[in-house]
């Protein structure tokens, strides 16, 4: 007998794994990304990310409803779209465009936007986040100079961003990216030298890497490939000179925390928990920036 759609009951087999909601005698570790009911291979229907159950596919594909009603949802509750990489493409385009602009405009453009605590600029003016230029926390994450630097970051953005955008939805994915960038800048601001400039999207990319680990674990997928990638990136972070490891670690931790709140939020309070998670992390970033500012100007 099939359970009614939305039923919270989960039949459990002798091994402790849940049984398929349509075939209780078949144990499974896979759940529908929309309703989270356990589904066996015979009931799995491929979605943009993961699998959906027959009922969710049927109700999501219906016609004659009000706009947005019964539209297929992502794992995190966002609306599935025809182009699950749109935000990733826009972010990639913005990074490339700003890189080209930096090459054309020269050092003064970079000096006005890079991550800097407190220093004296080439024109003799005091500049930096501690002097009120808090926008640098974000603008620096879209700024590159070296071709290899932007090439590696954009490769990571494209490879990691698409699946995450499909799993979270556009708005949640954008929040993940921006908070990861801010988290990386904030830790760099807190721990790095106050007059040492830095730039690049690496903090945001590490945030996507941390979020990928959380997402794959949530979906019971093999973590070994992404774990190896994370280990290699951390090795490079701490062995190569000239890398702002603080931004990498700040982005990684922030991205993982955002993703955890996104994909583990209870369905009944999903939106509230997700945005509360983002709000708390934004508050933590603000506190870190405030503390460091007091250290530099006090």
TrEMBL record:
Family, similarity comment: Belongs to the peptidase S54 family.
Primary location group: membrane
Transmembrane annotation, as ranges: 174-192, 198-216, 223-241, 272-291
The entry's keywords: Hydrolase, Membrane, Protease, Transmembrane, Transmembrane helix
Protein name as it appears in the record: Rhomboid family intramembrane serine protease
UniProt lineage: Bacteria, Bacillati, Actinomycetota, Actinomycetes, Kitasatosporales
SUPFAM superfamilies (UniProt xref): Rhomboid-like
Localization terms from the record: Membrane
Record carries keyword Magnesium: no
PANTHER family: PRESENILIN-ASSOCIATED RHOMBOID-LIKE PROTEIN, MITOCHONDRIAL, RHOMBOID PROTEASE
Naturally occurring in which organism (per UniProt): Streptomyces zingiberis
Membrane topology: Multi-pass membrane protein
Domain of life: Bacteria
GO molecular function, one term: peptidase activity
């Amino acid at each position: 007998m099939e359970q009614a759609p939305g039923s919270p009951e989960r039949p459990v087999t002798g091994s402790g794994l849940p049984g398929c909601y349509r075939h209780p005698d078949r144990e499974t570790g896979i759940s529908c990304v929309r309703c989270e009911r356990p589904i066996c291979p015979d009931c799995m229907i491929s979605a943009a990310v993961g699998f959906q159950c027959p009922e969710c596919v049927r109700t999501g594909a219906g016609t004659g409803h009000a706009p947005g009603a019964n539209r297929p949802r992502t794992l995190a509750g966002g609306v599935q779209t025809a182009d699950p990489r749109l935000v990733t493409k826009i972010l990639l385009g913005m990074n490339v465009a700003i890189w080209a602009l930096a090459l054309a405009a020269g050092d003064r453009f970079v000096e006005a936007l890079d991550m800097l605590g407190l220093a004296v600029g080439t024109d003799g003016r005091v500049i930096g986040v501690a002097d009120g230029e808090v926008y640098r926390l974000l603008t620096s994450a879209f700024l590159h100079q070296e071709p290899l630097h932007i090439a590696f970051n954009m490769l990571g953005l494209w490879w990691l961003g698409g699946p995450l955008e499909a799993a979270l939805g556009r708005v949640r994915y954008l929040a993940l990216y921006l908070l990861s960038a801010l988290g990386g800048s904030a830790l760099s601001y807190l721990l790095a030298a106050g007059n040492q400039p830095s730039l690049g999207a690496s903090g945001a990319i590490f945030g996507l890497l941390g979020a990928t680990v959380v997402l794959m674990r949530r979906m019971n997928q093999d973590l070994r490939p992404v774990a190896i990638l994370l280990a290699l990136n951390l090795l490079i972070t701490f062995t190569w000179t000239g890398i702002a490891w603080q931004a990498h670690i700040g982005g990684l931790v922030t991205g993982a925390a955002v993703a955890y709140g996104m994909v583990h939020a209870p369905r009944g309070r999903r939106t509230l928990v997700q945005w509360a998670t983002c709000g708390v992390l934004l508050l933590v970033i603000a506190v870190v920036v405030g503390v460091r500012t007091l250290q530099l100007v006090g």
